[in-house]
User: What shape does this take?
Amino acid sequence: MRRAHLLGLGFLSPALVIIVMLFLVPVLLTVMFSFTNMSTATGISGGAYEINSASLRKLADAGAQESFLDALGQEAFVVDDAGITAVAAAYGEQFANEIGSQMLGERFTSRRDLERAFRKLKSRPRSTRDIKKAADLFKRSVLNVRFETADGLVGAVTGNGIAMTPDQQELLTRTIYTGWSWTTDNFALMTQIPYIWRVAGNTVMYVVLTLSVSVGLGLFLAITTFYLPSLPAASFRAIWFLPRILPNVIFVLMWKWLAWDTGFISSFLANFGVAPRNWMLDTDIHAWVFIVLINGMVGASLGMILFGSAIKAIPQPMLYASEVDGASRWQQIRYIILPQLRWPIMFICAYSTLSLMTSFEYILLSTDGGPGGATEVWSLMAFHTALDNYAGNLQYGLGAAMALVLVIVGILASLVYLRIFNFNDLVAKPRIEQ
Amino acid sequence: MMSSNFRAWPLFLLLTVLSLPLVTMYVYLFVDTVTDTTAGSLIPDRFTLQHWRFLWEAPETGRVSIWTVTLNTFVFAICTTLVNVSASVTAGYALSRLNMPFKRFFLGGILTLHAFPTITLIISIFLILQMIGLYNTLIGVILVKTALELPFGIWIMKGFFDNVPWEIEMAGLQDGASRFTVWWKLVLPQVQPGIAALAVFVFLSAWSEFILPQVLAPSGSAQVLSTYLSNLIFDDVKPDFNMFKSVGVFYALPVIVIYLIFNRQLMNIYGGGTKG
Assistant: This one.
C-alpha cells in the first residue's frame, strides 16, 4: 500500500472506529435482538434451567402430558453410587457394600418401598429411625435445582429414572429456560397487537400533517420576510428560529404552560366563562393539533432558513425587471421565487419524512402518545415497548423488531436519496498524488 | 427602491399576528420566573425571586443539586464537542483531499449515515451499554452522542476542506513540508470558521440532548439539565410552572448567549449543514 493511502486511512481511523462501534454494530445488533425474546424477565445475559412450581405450570400451559409433569414433580429414591458413599460414611462399609452389591440401580417411588427393601438386608442398622435416615440419603429430585446447561438438566432428569421422549426433552429445555433465546415470533407478535394498524396510520398522518405545516409555514416565513425591510425581517427570523435551537424540553414546557388547565388559554378563556381544562390532552383532536403545531414550528424554522438562503440567491435585477413588466407580487412568487425553491423543498421533504417518521422526542415530552394512545406513533411504540412502559416488563426483543422496521425503511430511503441528490458530483479526485 | 411589490405593512401585520403566540410564550417564559400572578389572572402583579430558590436551597431528598447537574451537562457537551470536532476534522480532510482505497465507499457510507435516522438505534445501544458496563455513566452517553453526530460533522468539515484552494497545499509541498505539516500549519487555519461553526453546533446539540441521557443514564449521578427538568415536570402532581420556567431559563441561558453571539454562523450551519 502506498504511503499516501496510509495517511488517508490513518486520518480516517478515529472516526471510523467510533462509527463502527456505536453506529454499525447497533444496526447489526438491532437485527439480532429482533430475533430474540429478550425482556426484563429473561435478562440480557445468559439464563439457567430450573424446575420449580412456576416452571411446571409453564410446562403445563405449553402442553406437556400430565404423567410427565407428575414424574418431574415427584421425588424418587434411586440407589446410586453417590448415595452409597454417603451411607458408607454414616452407617459403615458393610451396609453400604451390601446395598451396592444387591440393589445398585434400583428405583423406588416412595421411601416406604426403599425401607422395606433395606429391611431384607443383613447388615442394616437396628433402629427404624436410622433406616429412614439412610433411605433419605437416596432421595433424588430435580425440583428447585439450578442447572447451568441443558445437558446438565437432561442428565439429572434421566438419572432420576424419568424417561423422556425427544419431544418431551425439547419441550422441557425450551420452556423452563430462564434466559433469552432465539425466536422469529416477534414479527408475528407485532401483527397481532390490536392497535398496530392505528399506530401505523397515526405515523402516516403525523408525517403528512407535520410536513405540510413545516413546508407551508417555512415557505410563508421565508417569502414574507424577504419582502420586509431588513430590521423587521431579522426580528421575525429570530423569533421563528428560536424553536429550532431551544432545547426541546423547554420548548414543550412553554406549550404545556399554554395548554394546561391552570395555563394561559384556560385563564384567558375564563374571562368568557369557559371552564378551565387541559387543552392539550382533553380530546384526540386537540392532542393532534398541538403535536402538529409543536413539531411543525420546529420544522418551519429549518425550512425558513433553507428557503430564505435560496431566495437570497435569486439575482435582484430579475425581480425588479419582473416588476417593470408589471408582474404582481403573487406572479413574482409563482413564476420566479417558487421555481428557485424546487430543490430545497424536495430536500426538506425527503429529509424530514425520514426524521419525522423515526423521531418521537416532542411527542414523548408533550402527550406521551395520549390521550389513550391517540397520538402514539411507530417509533414511540417501539420506545414504549422496549424502554419505558408501565407494566414493567420491558420487551427488548419485540421493541427491536419494531425498530427494525424503521431501520430498514431508513436505510432504503437513505440509499434512494443518495441517488436523487447526485452523489457523483460530491466526490472529487485529489489533485495531489503524493 | 421601495416598489409596490415590496410594500411592507400588510405583511408586517400578518406576520405579527402569526408570531403572537410564540412571542407570548417567550415573554411569559422570562417574566414568570421573577413574578407571581394571582390565580386566574393573566397579568403578573408582584416581583419575587423565590422561583429561583433551587439555585441556593439544598435539594430535596432524592434529588441532585442543580450545580452537579449543570457541571454534568457542561462535561457532557464539551467532551462531545471535543471528540466530535477532532474526529471530524481529520476524517473530513481525509475524505476531501487524501488518496485512499474505498474512498467512494466511505463517502457514500457517511452520507447514508447522515440521512439515516439514528434514534431508531436507541434500543440496541441501550442493550450494548448494559453489556459493556457503560450504562448509567456519562462516558457512555458522550460516546454515543459523538458517534451519532459524527457523520454530520465529517460531512460539514469535508465541505469546508473542499473550499480550500489546492494551491495552498501545493505551495507548502513545494517548499518541502510533509503532507501532515501542510494540513496542520496551512490548511487547518483556513477552515477555522468551519471548525468554530461545527463546535458551536455540536455543543448546542449535546446541550439540548434529551432522549440519550434519559434512556442511557437515568440515575441521579449522571443526570443532565434536560433530564433534570423533565423529571421535575413529570414528577410533580401540582405543576409549579413558574419554577419549571426558572429552571428552563437557567438551562437555556448558554443557548441564548451562544445564539446572540453566533447568530449568523448558526443560521448558516443549520441551513447549509443539512444540505446533501
Q: What stands out?
A: Chain A has a mean pLDDT of 82. Chain A is about 65% helix and 5% strand. The radius of gyration of chain A is 36 Å.
